[in-house]
Each structure stands twice: as C-alpha cells, then as structure tokens.
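Design request, tokens follow.
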C-alpha cells in the first residue's frame, strides 16, 4: 500500500487523533457517507489486515504520531 507516504502519514495522524486508533469506526463513517470505495477506506482495510498480523502495530503508529509533534495530544 504505502505509495503516498505523506498522505498515509496524515491518515495515521487522523486515525490516532480523531478516531483514537479505532479503524472500524472510521470505516463505519466512510460506509455511512457513501465513501466505502475511497482511497481512505482502501488504506484502512489494508491497515486492518496489517494490525491483525501485528497486534502491536497500532501502538507503534500511536507512538510515531506522538513523536512527530504534528498534532500534539495536549492540544486536544
């Protein structure tokens, strides 16, 4: 998947900061807004598969987002 590094990183930030790491919730919203075929939905389904293979992946993503300082958790 990872063909657009900046876009994918921003998706990780959104996943962590907006959806608290809940991939299913974001997918649910995309389905309910007729965007189930979007690039975001494709990315999230791919990520869901990756997380199924590596249960610690979401924690690693969260740590990376925290370390980036792009959207500090204190600002929430």
């Amino acid at each position: 998947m990872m063909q657009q590094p900046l876009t994918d990183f921003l998706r990780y930030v959104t996943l962590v900061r907006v959806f608290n790491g809940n991939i299913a919730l974001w997918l649910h919203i995309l389905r309910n807004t007729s965007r189930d075929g979007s690039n975001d939905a494709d990315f999230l389904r791919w990520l869901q598969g990756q997380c199924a293979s590596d249960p610690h992946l979401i924690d690693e993503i969260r740590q990376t987002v925290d370390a980036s300082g792009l959207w500090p958790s204190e600002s929430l």
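Comment from the thread starter after seeing the answer: thanks! The mean pLDDT is 91.
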